Amino acid sequence: MGASAARHGSQLLGLLSAAAAFSALGFQVVPFGLGWFIGWQNDDAMLNSAAAAAALLAPVMALRAAGLTPPWLLPFRLGVSVFGSVCLLLAGLIRSSVFALSATRGSSLRMAEFVCVNAAYAAILAAFMAAGALLGMPSLQASGTTFLFLYASEKAWELAYQVKDARALWVLGFAASVAMWRVGLFLSSHPGWLASVIGVGDGLLPPPQGTQAA
Length: 214
What we know:
By secondary structure, the chain is mostly helical. The protein has helices at 2-8, 11-24, 43-66, 74-95, 98-105, 111-135, 138-163, 166-189, 191-197, and strands at residues 28-32, 35-39.
C-alpha cells in the first residue's frame, strides 16, 4: 500500500498506510456499546507506537523547518501528522498518569520518577505547540493544545482522587461538565480548529468551504 501511495501520490493511500502501520504496532480504535476504545492492549505496544511516532514526526518537522518537501513524502505527511501526533501524545498522556505509573511500579513508584515523566510530557506538549507556531503547522499546535487541556483535566482528577474528598470530586465533575460544554461550543463555532488537526493549514489538505487555513 505504501508503494502504491508513493507511486500515485495518493494522500488517501498514504493515510491508510500510516493507519495500517500504527495498527500493526498495536494502536487500536474499537467501537463498543456506547463508546470507543482508543489505545493499546499493553505497555509494550504503547511504547513501540510512541517511539515510531517520534521517529516519523521528527524528520517531517526537520524537513519543514529546512523548507524541503521531497515528492515521495507528500502522500504520507497527512497520515504521519494525524496518527503520529495522536499516538505520541496519547501515549504520553497515559504514561504520565499516576494511576498508570502506580499500576506499573506499584509501591515502588517514586516521586522523582513521577516528576521526570510529567516534565518530559510537558516538554513534548510545549515542543508541539512551539513547532506548530514557528513552522507554520497548525495541526501540531492544535494537537498540542488539545492534549494540554486533556492533561490538565487528568491532573485535576488525580489531585481530587488523592485528596479523597467527595465534595472535591463533585465540584470537579461539575467543572469538567462545564468545560466540556464550552469546548463543544468552541468547536461548533470554530470548525477550522478541527480542520487544522487533520492537516488543513499545513498544506496537507485544501481548506473546506467555510473554513480558513491558519
